[in-house]
């Protein structure tokens, strides 16, 4: 949300600087009434734009930029001494601001908005106190109209700036809370998934072999066959969930183990794997573990959610980044949308990559899903940020 207000604050700053430039070059309008009117209209215009932008999240960026030009630019031009049609420029500014507010302001959201990060009662007290303080300064120091208006605009600009910082901190706190919520939700779903695997793939086989052995004529050989298959299946599940496998092996061994373990969980899928691993990559254990965890999640998603026939991946170093590129077929637009809107596995993968100074991006070309992961590496001798 705070990013929507940055353009308004920057525009306000530019108007103040333009005001100062005109004053410095003796081109500023001399009539006190015009200065006071422009200053007052500017404050109300900024208030209106800020409240409208915050109350409505569905305003297109082009309209937000357009209203700045049609609302704030005419007010700036009025300040030029000798410029004709000042009244017309004022009407354009007021009309543009009013139309924007009328079209996009969501009235029921106004009561939740306060440009000062304090209570409404405190805001009222602060405003009254500030107005009284300004009048005292004018009386004691005999401040002229230009200076008092500039002083007022600077105070309002500082208020806008702190409001943006306040919103930024609030949004970051909300984002962290949001991510922690989905992290706990994802962990709960993973436990449910693991419980389902235990029931469907292990307990069922145990129950079946138990029945065969408990019958009057037990089929021992067939029970052995079931239990042997069960042992293999249990080992594959154990390897898939055992992250400590990444801690001791080198990179190529870890990646080969990941492909073997993931593919063993999907015996009905036959995906052709092509890989290219840069031989100059570091053998740093921390880096190996992180790459292995990321690739394990990416590869599992391909097996689990697509009808892929092939999977290509490249792992190499470019400058201060380790790059993972992966392509696979069998993806649909619905799969791509699920990735972008995911609040579970993909979201947690993004969290992991972000926390290690990296980024991940996806692309879809027909049915080919491409994934690119960049992980930043420090300049110091292959030391990995983690």
Automatic annotation (TrEMBL):
Keywords: Kinase, Membrane, Transferase, Transmembrane, Transmembrane helix. The chain crosses the membrane at residues 5-22, 34-52, 59-81, 87-105, 125-141, 147-167. GO terms for molecular function: kinase activity. It comes from the Bacteria. InterPro entries: HATPase_C_sf (IPR036890). This is Histidine kinase. It comes from Peptoniphilus faecalis.
């Amino acid at each position: 949300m705070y990013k929507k207000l940055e353009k308004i604050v920057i525009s306000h700053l530019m108007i103040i600087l333009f005001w100062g430039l005109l004053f410095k070059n003796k081109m500023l309008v001399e009539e006190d009434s015009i200065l006071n009117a422009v200053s007052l209209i500017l404050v109300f215009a900024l208030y209106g734009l800020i409240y409208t932008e915050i109350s409505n999240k569905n305003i297109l960026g082009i309209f937000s930029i357009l209203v700045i030009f049609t609302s704030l630019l005419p007010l700036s031009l009025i300040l030029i001494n000798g410029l004709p049609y000042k009244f017309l420029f004022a009407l354009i500014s007021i009309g543009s601001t009013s139309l924007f507010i009328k079209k996009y302001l969501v009235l029921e959201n106004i009561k939740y908005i306060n440009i000062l990060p304090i209570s409404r009662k405190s805001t009222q007290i602060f405003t009254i106190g500030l107005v009284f303080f300004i009048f005292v300064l004018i009386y004691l120091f005999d401040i002229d109209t230009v200076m008092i208006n500039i002083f007022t605009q600077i105070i309002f600009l500082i208020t806008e700036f702190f409001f943006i910082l306040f919103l930024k901190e609030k949004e970051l706190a909300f984002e962290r809370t949001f991510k922690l919520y989905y992290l706990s939700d994802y962990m709960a779903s993973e436990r449910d998934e693991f419980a389902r695997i235990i029931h469907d793939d292990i307990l069922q086989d145990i129950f079946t072999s138990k029945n065969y052995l408990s019958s009057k004529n037990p089929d021992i050989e067939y029970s052995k066959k079931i239990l042997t298959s069960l042992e293999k299946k249990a080992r594959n599940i154990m390897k898939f969930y055992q992250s400590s496998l990444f801690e001791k092996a080198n990179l190529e061994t870890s990646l080969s183990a990941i492909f073997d373990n993931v593919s063993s969980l999907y015996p009905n899928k036959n995906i052709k794997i092509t890989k290219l691993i840069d031989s100059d990559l570091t053998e740093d254990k921390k880096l190996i573990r992180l790459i292995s965890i990321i690739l394990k999640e990416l590869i599992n998603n391909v097996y689990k959610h697509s009808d892929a026939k092939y999977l290509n991946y490249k792992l190499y170093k470019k400058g201060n980044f380790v790059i993972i590129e992966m392509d696979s077929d069998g993806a649909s637009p619905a799969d791509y949308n699920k990735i972008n809107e995911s609040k579970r596995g993909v979201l947690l993968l993004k969290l992991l990559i972000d926390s290690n100074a990296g980024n991940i991006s996806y692309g879809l070309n027909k049915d080919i899903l491409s994934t690119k992961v960049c992980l930043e590496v420090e300049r110091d001798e292959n030391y990995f940020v983690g």
